[in-house]
Every structure is written in C-alpha cells, then in structure tokens.
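Friendly challenge for the regulars: who can give me the structure tokens for this chain first? No prize, just bragging rights.
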Amino acid sequence: MMRRKINPNFVINISKIKGLDSIKWSNDTGLKMGALCTLRSLEKSKEVRENYPLLFNAIRLIGSVQIRNMATIGGNLCNASPAADTAPPLLALDARVKLAGKDGARTVPLDGFFLGPGKTVLRQGEILTEVDVKSLPSHTSTGFAKMGRTPTDISKVSAAVVLTSRRNKCEDVRIALGAVAATPFRAKGAEKILLGKEISDDTLEAASVVAANEAKPITDVRSTARWRKGAIKYLVRTLLESGLREVSK
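First reply, four minutes later:
Bragging rights claimed.
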C-alpha cells in the first residue's frame, strides 16, 4: 500500500481482536504467542527469556525500543523479509504457525511458510493468529547471532542453532540462516553432517562449510555475496562450539 502496488477499497484493523496478543507458556505445551504480541512484550517476558534465550536475544536486537513497542511477531514473519530476525530462531526452534480464514483454520510448519521475499503461504482472506514452539529437551543449548552495520541494524547475515547433545554425541540439531537467500531457511545439509555423530573439530568444520555452501546470498548495498558466505561459516561454527560447551557443563 505504501508503495502504491495495491489500492484496496477497505482496510481491516485486527488489533482489537481478543487473544491475539497473548503469551502462554507451560513445560507441557511450550510457548504460544499470539500474532499481535509486540516484540517488546516478548522481550520483557520471563518465560521467553528463560526458556528460549535465542529468541529473546534476536528480539532485543531488532531496531529500537520504540520500534519493538509497535512491531509484532506476526508482522515480522508475515512481512517475509529474508532478513527478518525472528525467523531464524523460530525456524531453529521448529515453530509452527496457525492460520485462519473464512474456510477454517490450519497449522503450517514455519519451515514451509516462506515462499520468497514478501511472499508466504497465506491465502486470500487468511491471517496468522499464533506462533507455537515446543519445550526444549534436556541437554539442549541454543544460540543466535547476527552481523549488521550496527548491532540493532538490519542483518547482513544471521544464524540460529539448537543443539541437543549427550556425551559429545549429537542427538538433534537445527541450524537456520537469515539474509543469505530469498527466504530464511534451515541448513538441512549441515544438520545431516552432525546428526547422530560424535562431535569433533572435523564435523564442526564440515557442518559450517556445508551451511555456507547452502547459503545463496546476493551482493547488494550492504554487503557482498562472498563476505556473507564467509560470515555464515564463522557464525555457524561459533554457535555450534558455544552450544557444545554449554551442554557439556
């Protein structure tokens, strides 16, 4: 609308719909975030901070407090920017989104929600109503990191990792990348390098190289494709190493 690409006859304000701004958490059901939850409300949530630190760390680096007081979790996802900072942590957390429209409601894995820059699987007349994340198992560490012109600026690259490991063996891992392809995405090739394997310098290096190769960055005014690939390799390796140290304590 701002760019005059569409000129609707009517605009519907959904901000008064009850329940769309709720934050609910329990160990059994995990975290349920209404689409209208502001980023600031999630940043201030004890449940988010203590149970999903990677999501908390991503949110607190988005813009200014004034922006986070207005921006919503649903808006950040439905905008479908490749650099959306909530997308990689939620992808790594295996989040699901609930969509509702005149034909009923459906639940979609976030991994299948993004179709391209500014494009999602939302159908005509549908809205996103909720984002759900399961509780994390024991022996699990999480991490998020981004690089931008400033710490709170739009990401040049971003990465999120969720790692479950016992006795130095990877039981589960999810690696998500942002700002290095047409959509935020899971680096599933890198995950396969680690899953079920003993974690060593060789496997960490191999996973980080594969993650960088899975990225399809562009060169634009903010950075080059070559730099972005190198940055992804560094971020993934760093997050995996810190996660391994965390679960080994």
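Residues 7 and 109 are 31 Å apart (CA to CA). The chain is about 30% helix and 25% strand. Your move, everyone else.
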